[in-house]
Amino acid sequence: MQYNQFFQKDVQIVRKVVFIVCTVMLIGFITILAGSYLYIKSALKPVNPKDRTAVHVSIPIGSSVNDIAATLEKKHLIKSATVFRYYVKFKNHADFQAGEYELNRAMSLEDIIATLKTGKVMEKMKLKITIPEGKQLTQIAEIIAKKTGYKQEDVMKQLNDRQYIQQLIQKYPTVLSKDILNQNIRYPLEGYLFPATYSFKEKKPPISTIIEAMIAKTAEIVAKYEGEMKEKEFTPHRLLTMASLIEEEATEKVQRKKIASVFYNRLRVGMPLQTDPTVLYALGKHKERVYYEDLKVNSPYNTYIHKGLPPGPIANAGEMSIQAALQPAQTDYLYFLATPAGEVIFTKTLEEHNREKEKHIGKQ
């Protein structure tokens, strides 16, 4: 009798264990299934529905579906080469053609597949515009004007059109915000036209097409650092503003991350940033040398008389400066000096800084 009771208890325990194990396995299976479904569903969507920047893709003769999938993933035109391969197989797609293609990240898988079946050679680009790093909006407008035949004032008029800017804020909300409409800002889109080379099918595309290609590129670059920005509580506007200061102070020989550390150290102790490029921006002209009288210019951009960051960027910044703004070096430097030879000397005290300044530049 006692044996039967123990036996029945053992059976009950075994049943409970089996039930728990089966339940856990079922939950795990459902979780994996749901996760796989969401992953595949996401992978089937365009990489970036708003990014229509042309991406050149070359498909050599004899390329397999695996080769094509790998190329598309490397170019960030699809989210998953594996999903692409299975999708092609499931849909029985074939007859991909070798050729030179122009694709973009807003295309769906079906659009990409349809294009790759045409064998159509990429249209020859009729206009190429290269925007260097560290250029101000007026300089970029001049470059666009020279390349397209538009008048510089017409380019600037489009860049400063408030109604148009409102439309851009709605179209590119991940990078543009109402911060750029601050009354203290000289040009709303200053710092938002990314330095890169842009190609267009037309010799003279609409000015808006050129502007938006550059803003879309900025949005693409900034999106790469979304996690770090969130962690450091940075808005795109603050990031691009700091990056522009780093860009304007940087030389070929200097580490941007050290310059960034100086700026952050000054902000931390309540010092003005005191960076000469902001004075030159406030003056609205380029000078080889900034004099003490220049430092008194009455402008919200003058970081000698106003603490903190200026109202907005003072130029466009390359990705290295954006990285430096988010990943500054860990130093206790409060000063740096760019010598005429291009060397940058970092110091901890004002006394050291003035000594180096007199040695390399002389008294003002």
Key traits:
single chain; 364 residues; mainly alpha; Dna Ligase, domain 1; 3 domains; two-stranded antiparallel ribbon; 14 helices; 7% strand; cell wall biogenesis/degradation
Write the layout of secondary structure elements.
Layout: H1 2-43, E1 55-59, H2 65-74, H3 81-90, E2 99-103, H4 109-116, E3 127-130, H5 137-148, H6 152-159, H7 162-171, E4 197-200, H8 207-223, H9 226-232, H10 236-249, H11 256-269, H12 276-283, H13 319-326, E5 335-338, E6 344-347, H14 350-360
Antiparallel strand pairs: 1-2, 3-4, 5-6
Helix pairs in contact: 2-3, 5-6, 10-11, 10-13, 11-13
Strand order of the largest sheet: 1-2
Largest sheet composition: 2 strands, antiparallel
Structural class: mainly alpha
- Topology pattern, helix = H, strand = E: HEHHEHEHHHEHHHHHHEEH
Number of strands: 6
What's the overall average pLDDT, rounded? 86
Q: Given the structure, what is the number of helices? A: 14
| Model regions low in confidence, pLDDT < 50 over at least 5 residues | none
User: How many distinct folded domains?
Assistant: 3
User: What is the alpha-carbon Rg in Å?
Assistant: 28 Å
Shape descriptor: globular
Oligomer state of the chains in this structure: single chain
Distance between the termini: 107 Å
Helix share bin: 40-55%
Q: What proportion strand?
A: 5-15%
Summarize the structure in words.
With 364 residues, this protein is mainly α. It has three domains: 55-116, Endolytic murein transglycosylase (Dna Ligase, domain 1, 2-Layer Sandwich); 127-223, no CATH class; 234-360, no CATH class. The protein has helices spanning 2-43, 65-74, 81-90, 109-116, 137-148, 152-159, 162-171, 207-223, 226-232, 236-249, 256-269, 276-283, 319-326, 350-360, and strands spanning 55-59, 99-103, 127-130, 197-200, 335-338, 344-347. The strands form three sheets. The chain has a two-stranded antiparallel sheet. A two-stranded antiparallel sheet has the order 3-4. The protein has a two-stranded antiparallel sheet with strand order 5-6. Helix 5 crosses helix 6 (152-159), helix 10 (236-249) crosses helix 11 (256-269) and helix 10 (236-249) packs across helix 13 (319-326). The longest helix has 42 residues, at 2-43. The chain is globular. The termini are far apart. 27% of the residues are buried. The mean pLDDT is 86.
